[in-house]
Amino acid sequence: MDESELAPKLAVLKALAADEHVTRVAERVGLPQPTVSRWIAELGEQLGAPIMTKSGRRVRLTRAGRLLAEAATRSLAALEPGLREVEEELDPEKGRVVLGFLHMLGRAVVPELVRGYRAEHPHVRFGLVQNARQAVIDKLVSGEIDLALVAPPPVGPEFESVVVFEQPLIVVVPAEHRLESRKSVRVQDLEGEDLITLEHGYGLRQITDDMCAAAGFRPRYVFECQEIETVRGLVAAGLGVALLTHAEFAPPPGLRELPLTPRTGRIFGLTWLKDHPLPPAVRAFREHALRTHGVQR
Is 0.70 surpassed by the pTM of this model? Predict the structure, then answer.
């Protein structure tokens, strides 16, 4: 017997064990009485032994029927939480959204996005995954997360991305550096400088590599870090210069922020897998994120 046919029959058997009355059980499960009787008979045929006997107007389960009913009860009890999870997943008001994003977005951008969405959809649950750009993209491809908020957004036929915001890039130098009095700085001006950057796999590292290559020189990295604020601290300590974005909070003393010319921005995109269907709650959150940042699809 096909497993898809077995599950509803076991549900009927479970109900019959609780109320040994075929007519009442049929009404409770919403099936015709002949269908209930036929299903119980089919279960007996599959077992090779009857699972029900008549006793006046009522029926009684045989020992084999009782054992099967107990197994059905255990199986359905294990299945019911999973069914509830599936129902919640398909309900935009009760689903779960797993969002991957860069560490720096955990201070303000993502909390504000989630706060605004939860105000309208208080029962939606979130899984929040912070990591370097490449690690977030890898988790998106593997299906561990639903959406990725990274910079720059990945390029490839498997991805679909929408730009949600842009941050201007700047040059940060320590006090009394030869460039600190400049009104603006070109990337070419950083040739020969000790550069401080993030490790491979971080979006800002990729941007720095690409900009230096476009300017025609190989960057001389002296420190590779995992946090932008560590980069700022090392620059403020006089250990090098860096390409960064403006500090969200007051930068450490001894650090100068200089505009980059020509103006260049760090583009943040919300990304999902192109041919991967998204649950309703994820789609609703995606639209909220795009509306919040003024992007219409």
Answer: no
